[in-house]
Automatic annotation (TrEMBL):
Cellular localisation: Membrane
Chief location bin: membrane
Superkingdom assignment: Eukaryota
Keywords: Membrane, Transmembrane, Transmembrane helix
Protein name listed in UniProt: Cationic amino acid transporter C-terminal domain-containing protein
Organism, as annotated: Amphimedon queenslandica (Sponge)
One Pfam family named in its UniProt record: AA_permease_2
Signal peptide range in chain numbering: none
Lineage: Eukaryota, Metazoa, Porifera, Demospongiae, Heteroscleromorpha
Amino acid sequence: MSASETEAVSSLSDSESVILMNRRVIDDKKETEEVKESPEESKSASTPSFGLRKELTLFSTVTFVIGKIIGSGIFITPSRVLRYSGSFGLTLILWSLGGLFAICGGLCYVELGNMIRNSGAEYAYLKESYSFKKKRKSSIVFGNLLGFLFSWSYSFFIRPSATAVIMLAFGRYFAQAMAGGDTPPDVAVKLCSIAAFIFISLVNAYSLRATAMLINITSVAKVLALIFITGLGVWQLIKGDHSHNLTSSFEDTSPCVGEIVLAFYSVLFSYEGWNGIGYTVEENKNVKRNLLLGIFLGVPCVTGCYVLVNIAYFAGLSKNQVLSSPATALTLAQSTIGDAGLVLIPLMVAVSTIGAATGAVYAGSRVMYTTARDGNLIETLSLLHNKFQTPVMALIVQGLLTCLLIVIGSIGHLIDGLTTLMWVFYGLVFVGLLVMRFTRRQETRPFKVWFPVPVMMIFIAVFLIFVPIILVPNERLYFLLSLMLFFAGIPVYLLLVWDRLRPKVFSKITDKLNKVFMFLLDSSLPATAPTTSTEIITYTAKTDGNVDTNNDN
């Protein structure tokens, strides 16, 4: 063997030895990781693919918007709107303006939803928009704190109490329909409410597809019900009983600005739910298209139905009948089709409330789940079912709170204060949108709402916060109570969430709870969500790339 061949062999041996040494180091690391991770931990550990499923199509997004908005309000509130506005003409204008307002608010959420791909909606928007100086820990803490305070207020007070009111409305109308129009006992109302709520929660826990199907069915049923009511008004108009209401539509218009404001406030109550588009982001197949079309198709559909139904009320009933009616649709049906209306209309309202409650349960569970996944609530609340990939733990906790409030029953005044508090959060979200226009100029925005729109929404939010407090003295007490619940979340955050003050024993308790409920609920912790804007963009690109948009309908 020549000297050159000997050097080649020796150099080859050296390279091989280096490769072998690297392989041994890698193998040693793998063995160490395998020893540290037990089979049970490996089974329950989150994987990048384990999270909420992307199953919402365009149709499901549109029906979710419709279903989240249309509840019992359109069947009940028209008399209150007319009482404050004074005339049919002004009432119709206010209902139309309510739809325009819902579109503007929804478009702000479309921009935010395209930037922040997180189903927490207000929680995620507040957390991200007020954590704008990433190099300063104080701003990150403030963003997390503000997001936590929203989730604390929404998940544990606002959403359960609002859902309880919706379910009590269902129980009352469903039991009335079953009783042939007679007033049902309170026990029957609550039992019907709890039974229906358990059914809705089970559907939400079973699968997103089943939840979307229930919302689709009830949303279509709602639109058909409103078309039916419109038909009753047309029939009365043909008969000519109250056609003069439409020819003298602006008579007796209220000259008091305060009363008109209260009328518009009642209209906006019936449009509550326009923000629901933000809760569908992580599970939407095509966020860029579906969010925008969900607002542009869903809200005008609701607005058209609302205006037509109000025209039907005014064509079929006298002004005094509308003003004295606690449920305008029921009065119209009874005057048109007799006693059959005492059964038919309550059933329609019951179906409408089922759809609204399904969307409410969906939204509430996503906020609680997302907050827990981010580490701003106890981690156990983020558990997903291994098979269905639904937030089972959040649904259970939300369900227990809602059932408790259904049993209590008398929470209407608390809802008024919490609704006002919700507008505080809406206003902060709109401000946060403008903040990110300056702090995140470099980020790509698939949709960018016209600048005056969020500015207008901020003024409307401030307006809706202070008007009931100024004009309705009782509202001050309830709003003060809701603020106390809001600020009670600060010590909870500092002691149980913030790393600097949280006791170490709390982490140990959380780990034990995780293991117990993982076993009982056949569930696992989800993959960690992206936190920074760069991570969100990267995560979005990856997840959108895994979706077959050709099948998205």
